[in-house]
Amino acid sequence: MPGLQFDSGVDKGFENDLKRMKKEMRSLGTTVQKEGSVIDKTFKNIGANIAGFVSVAAIGAAGKELITFTNDLESSLTEVATISDTITNNFEGTKEAVLALSTEEERGAEGAIKLSEALYQIVSAGFDGEQGLTLLSEAALASTAGFVETAIAADGLTTVLNAWGKSADEAGLVSDIFFKTVEKGKTTFSELGKNINQVAPIAASMGVSFEEVAAASATLTKAGTPTAQAMTQIRASLIAMNEVLGDGWAEVMTYQEALIELKEQAGGSQNELTKMLGRVEAVNAVLGLTGKNAVTAAEDLEAMNNALGATQAAAEKVVDTTANQLKILKNNILAALEPLGTEASKVISQLAKS
Questions:
Q1: pLDDT at 21
Q2: Residues sharing a CB contact under 8 Å with residue 165, sequence separation 6 or more, in sequence order
Q3: DSSP state, 250?
Q4: What are the distances in angstroms from CA 242 to CA 228, 247, 266?
């Protein structure tokens, strides 16, 4: 660049960097053409010349999207790495695992960047390394099946796992119980995931199972109680049980039996029940889960105990939709081209440093 001459010597260093950058760009171009040829063969049935798309439009909108995707993915995973030495030490392996997950029909609905953001929530909850990836896989399946953000699904799953002392390997069953609750009640996975934290800690500490809480949620919401309010009622009833029945009641009776016991102690009178419990929310839980609703509550609990496979069944109804297939196609293309985006980003980074 003859027009740029400085006595400071910076010009010489810049010219050397520019020459090196040009060399790398030529090498990148060769790689793009080679990879583009392979991709073209892979996707020839969609009627588009991907090789031409890559080699020509890499400097246009498509190339911009690829580089943006690459940079955003790196940033998201780097954020996870800040709280995980395991991921720091295996950054590329984690990236490959997330990209692979994003290409699965049943798990890639939100794409690699959203999966990375969900992984942050999972690691924050104490599930790192292989356990974290296992949980991410289950959260991604729930995301597809329940039309819910992967991060919200992950939040709900980790809340239950931590409260009841379960391992990541049990995340699939927890997800199944969530979906069985959606099936039997009038709620969504998103609503359950956002509100389960109201009940989980206290229920688990008393020895009340997640299945019992989920069944109660299904019964109450089915009768028209909003999910958040149902969780408040269940929590209030648990506190009232401790006050009226004493500590350790869960060792000799189930949650449903305890509700019936409270109603019997009140002699079937709603006024007496209100005086005894002192909380309107607790009273509503007792009334909503006993009497004429007792049979429904028992049936819902039985359903929770037989929930295995509910998430998979829901996901299978979604995977073949056009919207999901288009998302997965895009994810596959981005995953295949991600190495090219990474190389291009390195060149741009070097230029920026120069």
A1: 58
A2: 204
A3: G
A4: 22, 5, 16
Burial class (CB in 10 A: 0-12, 13-18, 19+), 119: buried
pLDDT of residue 33: 55
CA distance to 21, 255, 290, 347, 350, per residue, from 11 (Å): 15, 78, 83, 19, 16
Residue located via tokens 């959260």: 139
Checking if the pLDDT of 192 tops 80, the result is: yes
Asked whether the beta carbons of 178 and 189 are under 8 A apart, the reply is yes
Note whether 153 and 280 are within 8 A (CB): no
In angstroms, rounded to a whole number, what is the distance separating the alpha carbons of residues 210 and 39? 47
> What pLDDT does 17 receive?
57
**Are 36 and 50 spatial neighbours (Cβ–Cβ below 8 Å)?**
yes
What letter does residue 9 receive in the DSSP assignment? S
Going by the DSSP 8-state scheme, the letter that residue 168 receives in this structure is G
> Which residue type does 13 have?
G
Give dist(CA 278, CA 240) in Å, integer: 8
The tokens 């400097």 sit on which residue? 59
Structure tokens at 10: 């910076």
* Whether this model's pTM surpasses 0.90: no
Cβ distance 158 to 142 under 8 Å? no
Integer Cα distance of 15 and 194 in angstroms: 56
How far apart are the C-alpha atoms of 63 and 53, rounded to whole Å? 9
pLDDT at residue 125 in the model: 97
